[in-house]
Amino acid sequence: PDVNRQNLLGEKTGENPMFRSFQEEYIGFLSAKDSEELIHEIGSWKKIVWDNTAAKKVYDYCGGHPLITRLFASQVCREGAQKAIDLERVEETALEIKRDLRKHEIGNYYQKGILELLRDDEQQALASIYKKGNEGYSETEMPVELEDALANLENFGLVASDNGKLFIQAQLFNFWLERRWA
Asked: In angstroms, rounded to a whole number, what is the distance separating the alpha carbons of residues 56 and 75?
């Protein structure tokens, strides 16, 4: 993105000829179905066959975030070296990533690409939802002054609502938060 966003590259280099050459478009988070389709389609380009259950589980870990899904899936198939992917391999990968999440590129993205970009009210709403864990945070309990923040978290795909209860969308993100906020 910096190639498109930064005009001056430095005194010696001068102006960036690629500045504003591309139209950036936010695609948002993927649905469970779209996440599975992405995994199957990209896998097929490299002759990687994903078991349907394994592809579905990736959504649970990544919450439909396109970049996290790609990074996770890439590690699952060992950068294309493993051509048949089952649920066991997905679970092994999740454990590998969790062991090293603070240094892993997914953990770094959670820090730099998500948490540091959230406003204070968004972080406060996220923390409230996180603290309720599997019980879920009742939507009716959210303070009025945090409703806009909650709407943003839902639009970002970080938080999901199920039967009036709010949850952290992705298991890996929830685990990452646990390491910081527990």
From this structure: 16
